[in-house]
Every structure is written in structure tokens, then in C-alpha cells.
Amino acid sequence: MAGVTVTGALAGGLEVLPAPFGSSPATNVVVYGAAGTDVAAVNDVVVGLGGIFLDGLSELTLSDFETGERNDISVGSSIDSEFGSEIDETDGAGLISGKVVISTPVLDDEIYNFHEAIDVGSGVNLTTALDIGDEDFKDGTFLIVPQGGVGYRVEFDENLKSGSQITNVVGSDVFVVPFLGRAIVITAATSTSISASPGIKMTLRLGDNIQANGKTVRLIAVDDNGALFDVSGVIDNVNVLDSKKINGVELFLNDVVNSNQDANDRIIVTASDPSGEAVEVYNDGDEFVDENEDHYLWEWNLAGLDSTGKGNIT
């Protein structure tokens, strides 16, 4: 695309996008790029966009593009005017959809469908040193990403039930949600903040086990669609890209590899363990999980976490 070797991971799928920044922040929780025109932020977007969450996902491509093809746009053009302003999992972008479980003291184990989406705002431009008069660019071609120019969100596909809002999560009823390539464990929330930590993300082979929330989680079987776990004597299955609470442990199954030989079968799973993790409070405008507070690429845009409407929850 654009006479510059930026693969389909950034070019594709941007022409058919649902409404982007116009959506209400009262029902949206969005992470925005926060490093201005920092080239590191641009690189983060280019490299990370095609495989946001799972290893081995396909590159982001437009529906009328084939792998290895490219399309030219004029230097100086804005990406949103050329390709559109939103991309989601239906665009073959490497973004995901699946199911998550929200358990609260009011409603236990409510299952909701979700999908990931990326917003591209105005001012994300393809440019060179000739356009901006910066000799540091030399003869390279770059995407200039202004602060707030790129957003990411996890969106629910149905309304949250009353009593099943994120603000109802408390105590052992944690909420595990995939976000920006991580699985975030939310232990509490207000309408504009979350108490959260990264979950325990592990690669397991058959017979392997991990400790989570005081329980032993053992992998006992794998197929193309999911995995079977033994959590301290309670056996249950979890499908790929779904989460399930088994014997008090919330599990999110990131990916599976089901080979012809059991010895080569493996999975990537995230388990909640709030007792063994450093839980941080993140307010609207704070840096993303595990980022440096003085120099970060993504910041939280938290609002409406007490909403029951259909919208974005993380």
C-alpha cells in the first residue's frame, strides 16, 4: 500500500467500518495512542495492528486485496479518507470476536458476545520529510499519528443486564477480558476507573498445570475448537476465544494447536489469580497496563462502566 512496504496489517479492512469516534463515551471504554507524533507509536500501530491478540493470525487485508498485493494512495493523504475510519473482526483484520463471562453478586456467570474494533481518526496521514519539513525523516515514508489518532476498543454485541455491569464486579467475581493483546483481569470498577492486573498467560501442553486462585489448573485434552481442563477435581471445557469460570478460576482460552500427535498439542490460556497479582487502579487518562507512566503509547479512556446499554465495556 502507498508505495511503502507497510503490509496489509495496516492497509486493509479500513474501508468498511462502523461509526468510529462519533460513538458516545458514555458507553465506550477506549484506549487511545498517547505519544503524539512519536515514531515509536507509529511503529507500534504498524507492527501490532495485524495480530492484536492471538499468535499466528492472518494479516489485516481489505476484502478486495490478496496476500502480497498492494494499493497506492497519494503521499499526504489521510488514512481515514482513503480507507475509512473503523475496522473490526469482520474485515479479516486479525481482530477477534468471542464470548466473555461476567459474574457479580447479583448475577452469576452471564455470558456476552464481544468483538474488537480499531478506530482511525482524522489527521493520520501518509507523509515524507518534504511534506512536514523534518529532515529526520530523510527519504523514508511515514504514517503520522497525532495524539488520539488511533483508538482500540472491545465492544459487546448485546445489552448488559442490570446487575451485570462492570461496576458490579467485586471480590472473587473477577472479569477477564481480552484487550490489546493481553487478557486483563478486572477486580473492581467505578464508572470511570478499573482495578485491574494482567492475568497469568501461559502456554500449556497436555498434562501441564498452573496454580491460580489457590487451585491447580491442568490441561487434559485439546481439539480444534477448545480444550478440556481439570481445575482441582472439576472438569470442564473452554472454547477458543471464550472464557469460563471453572471451580472458582476464570479461564480465557487464547489459542489452541491441535496436531496429529498428542505430545505436540498445546494451548495459550489466561487464568485469573487476583491474590497473586499486583492490582492497579486505572483512571480515565492513565497509561495502559504495564506501560511507563512518563512515556507510554496507549492511555485509558474510561467512561460509562455502570452502563447497561449495548456498547463498549473496556
Largest sheet descriptor:
6 strands, antiparallel
Chain oligomer state: single chain
SSE pattern = HEHHEEEEHEEEEEEEEEEEEEEE
Helix content: under 10%
- The dominant shape is globular
Radius of gyration, in Å, reads 20 Å
Distance between the termini: 31 Å
The low-confidence runs, each spanning 5 or more residues with pLDDT under 50, are 1-69
Count helical runs.
4
- Return the structural class: mainly beta
Proportion of beta-strand residues: 35-45%
- Give the total of domains: 2
- Quick one: how many beta strands? 20
Give the rounded overall mean pLDDT. Answer: 71
Overview of this structure, please?
By secondary structure, the protein is mostly beta strands. The protein has two domains: 8-167 and 285-301, no CATH class; 200-271. It is 7% helix and 37% strand. The protein is built from four helices and 20 strands. Strand 3 and strand 4 (110-120) form a beta hairpin. The longest helix is centred in the first third of the chain and has 10 residues, at 39-48. The model is unreliable at 1-69 (pLDDT under 50).
